[in-house]
Each structure stands twice: as C-alpha cells, then as structure tokens.
Amino acid sequence: MIYAANFKTNHTRKSTENYIEDLQRKLVDKNEEDRVFIFPPLTALDAYEGDFTIGAQNAYPVESGAYTGEVGVEQLAEFNINTILIGHSERRDILGESQEVVAKKFAFFKEQGFEIIYCIGESLEIREQGLEAVMEHLVSQFEGIDTTYENFMVAYEPIWAIGTGRTASVEEITMTHDALKKVVDKPLLYGGSVKGANIAQIAAIDNVDGVLVGGASLKTETFLELVLH
Ligand code: 13P
C-alpha cells in the first residue's frame, strides 16, 4: 500500500519538522513494502531523510526564471525533491488550472524524471449522473497526459468526498477503480475523507493500491492509524 499525506495549506516549517521526527520514529513498525509520501507546504520543504518520500504539492514547470510567486525545479532540487502532486482538484477548481496547464506540468515534470501523483476526480453533480458520466469526466482528465510514463500513479479523489467526511462507498470506489484500471494500468490511490474508521474497508478493495489523505494526515497519530492499520 501507498500512504500519501497532503498537508495542503497546513503546518509550518517547525511543525513539519516535529511531525517528521515523530513519524520517522514510529514508521519502524510499518510493512516494509508499504510506501509513505509526505507533501508539506512548499515553505516546509527540506532534505529530510527517512523511510518516506517528501514531495511538492505544486511547482511551476520551469527550471527557474521570471515567474513571480512560483518555484521551479531549481528550488526543489535544493532539497532533493523529485516527487510532485499534479492535477489536484483544489488547484484545478480554486486556483484555476485548466487541463491544458495540468498537462503541461505533467509533460515537464515527466521530462525531469519526477515521480508524479496525478489527481483526478468528479463533482457531485457528475457523480449523480452515474458511473458512465463519471468515467467520461475522469477519462477527459487524462487529455494530454502520457499514461505510459513509468514513474507515475493516479489518485482518484471525488471532489464531493474531499474534506466533507463523506467517503465514497466501497461499491463506488470498487466500480470506479475497476474502470480506471482498464484506462490506465498504474498504481491507483483513493482520496476523500480517508480516516482510521474506514481505512480497513478501503484498503481491502482490490484495485486500491493506496490512499491520498488530507485531514487525517495532519497529526502523526491519525496518519499512523492508517499506515499501521
Ligand atoms: P481529505 O482527506 O481531507 O478529505 O482530503 C483529501 C485530499 O484532497 C487529499 O489530497
């Protein structure tokens, strides 16, 4: 299993340092084959070493240059960061990233050899139209994406399940992941209100290879409930 913590706009540099120190101590108990990723805010990036991978929640698809407010590969390289989240629904919907922009980022970071967690997900309005409409939407989020890239995985995060406490049902996750595996044969994470109370059920689903976690990743205790479940 893959366990990825997305801090979003939470934690400081200091609290991230404390978090990682505490987490690392307790990760000795995890299954050896499981992988843990942590995506802190950009200001908290550092060259941490341990049984986990630190990634960037976002970056601009350049080495360096005149892009006020952005960071490029040069800034990430300072901390040996070569893992990135691309296409998160918050960046698509709140920060206005179009599929074209998302695809451009994907192509750039692929070229750089980054490990990419590529996020897709549908709104409640689309989910209510049924699986066919959901799949049509999810497939459209692969437009311009090289799904043969060897160093990437997909995170399916239904927007209506993010931060709402309303997880997709086992049946919804099963059917969506089964259909997605036929479209892209890559590790497939589920995200959306994953927590201690539902991890066993979700992790037991055949085509769930991991989870991408927001709220429950913010404290080491609640994240470890997932990793060590
Ligand atoms: P929550 O776990 O808070 O629902 O967030 C999910 C998410 O968006 C992770 O990227």
Q: What integer is the average pLDDT?
A: 97
Helix content: 25-40%
| Topology-level CATH name | TIM Barrel
User: Which structural class fits the helix and strand makeup?
Assistant: alpha/beta
Description:
The chain is an alpha/beta fold and 229 residues long. The chain has helices at residues 13-26, 73-77, 89-93, 99-111, 124-127, 131-140, 170-183, 199-203, 220-227; strands at 2-6, 35-39, 53-54, 83-86, 115-120, 152-156, 188-191, 210-213. The protein is built from 9 helices and 8 strands. An 8-stranded parallel beta sheet has the order 3-2-1-8-7-6-5-4, covered by helices on one side. Strand 1 (2-6), helix 1 (13-26) and strand 2 (35-39) form a beta-alpha-beta unit. Residues 6, 88, 157, 162-163, 191-194, 212-216 line the site of 1,3-dihydroxyacetonephosphate.
Brief descriptors of the model:
229 residues; alpha/beta; TIM Barrel; 8-stranded parallel beta sheet; globular; binds 1,3-dihydroxyacetonephosphate
How are the SSEs ordered, and which strands pair?
Elements (H helix, E strand, L loop, with lengths): L1 E5 L6 H14 L8 E5 L13 E2 L18 H5 L5 E4 L2 H5 L5 H13 L3 E6 L3 H4 L3 H10 L11 E5 L13 H14 L4 E4 L7 H5 L6 E4 L6 H8 L2
Parallel strand pairs: 1-2, 1-8, 2-3, 4-5, 5-6, 6-7, 7-8
Helix pairs in contact: 6-7
Summary?
The protein is of the alpha/beta class and 229 residues long.
